[in-house]
Write a structure and sequence with these properties.
The chain has 299 residues and is α/β, with parallel strands linked by helices. Helix 3 crosses helix 11, helix 7 packs parallel to helix 8 and helix 9 runs parallel beside helix 11. It is 42% helix and 14% strand. Strands 1-2-3-4-5-6-7-8 form an 8-stranded parallel β-barrel, surrounded by 7 helices. It has one domain: Aldolase class I (TIM Barrel), CATH 3.20.20.70. The chain is globular, with a radius of gyration of 18 Å.
């Protein structure tokens, strides 16, 4: 079942055509988002970009942009500093600016997470205008259950409203986390996080898959209502395992696309592009699993 969208009331009449164009580009008219995540350089420092199982070229930030420029994606999400440095060489790539981020250096057991907004939306709009970049939306991470959740909720709600005012999409990463959160991947809790994202006004909620698997996503999808739900790709899996799980998320869980980072960019360029194209076939074309696997295998 495909996700259907209506134009939010906070999109002004003179920005509705831009909003719909951005939504259409990010979903290829399918109602499903294909988000390539490249925001981990802050979240995970250099942990995701070097190691025995990681392609050597992944140590260079430009690897992310090369993949995004050559593959079939909906939107490439990363920080504004990287976009400013590399996007002029890749102007046709559709971008989503990640507006907040934090490192993993301070354990949750020591202090509840707080991730504040780095840039103003005005700065994003100026970059879009002066550099002529294809910026489709903005993203923000919240941590429900943190003692500081109210600060992040306030920033996220304002950002989603302001983004819509200028025809941009708003995607909210929602990860229940804090000293009072006992199980971050509890299906009922993840559904609650999706409901929060809907209340904040975002177009898509990016969450972790519940520990109980794809079927447990149904509660989250219902809780999100008209906000689409996509799952984070998580740690690297075999392509076959990853694509099989994504197919189940879409068809069993009822999600509205995908959001994948490490499983894409830790691979060599040519393989990463093939995997992106296979993911997009599942998301945009509603392809069956065998078709997606054939695309990945280059057949």
């Amino acid at each position: 079942m495909r996700h259907t969208f209506s134009i939010p009331a906070d999109v002004p009449p003179d920005e509705r055509s831009r909003y719909l164009a951005n939504l259409d580009r990010a979903t290829e008219g399918s109602g499903r988002l294909m988000l390539m995540a490249g925001d981990q350089k802050v979240e995970h420092l250099n942990d995701d970009f070097i190691g025995p199982e990681v392609a050597e070229e992944d140590s260079d930030p430009e690897h992310l942009f090369r993949i995004a420029s050559k593959a079939r994606i909906g939107v490439f999400a990363t920080q504004m500093g990287l976009i400013s440095r590399y996007a002029p060489d890749y102007p046709q790539t559709p971008y989503l600016v990640k507006m907040n981020a934090k490192t993993h250096l301070i354990p949750t057991a020591d202090k509840d997470p707080l991730s504040r907004q780095w840039h103003s939306l005005e700065q994003v709009l100026r970059l879009r205008k002066t550099a002529g970049l294809n910026i489709l939306g903005v993203g923000y991470t919240i941590y429900p259950g943190s003692a500081f959740e109210h600060e992040m909720f306030t920033e996220a709600a304002r950002l989603a409203f302001e983004a819509h005012q200028h025809g941009l999409l708003a995607v909210i990463w929602a990860y229940p986390r804090g000293q009072h959160v006992k199980n971050e991947k509890d299906a009922h809790l993840i559904a609650g996080a999706c409901g929060i994202v809907a209340c904040l006004g975002a177009d898509f909620a990016k969450v972790n898959q519940p520990a109980d698997g794809s079927a447990a996503l149904r509660e989250a999808v219902r809780a999100a209502g008209r906000t689409g739900v996509v799952c984070a790709g998580g740690r690297e899996a075999s392509p076959e395992e990853f694509l099989r799980n994504l197919h189940a998320q879409l068809h069993v869980g009822g999600t509205a696309g995908s959001a994948t980072g490490r499983n894409i960019h830790q691979r060599p360029l040519e393989e990463a592009v093939r995997l992106c194209n296979a993911i997009s076939a599942l998301d945009f074309d509603d392809a069956d699993l065998e078709t997606a696997l054939a695309i990945y295998r280059g057949k």
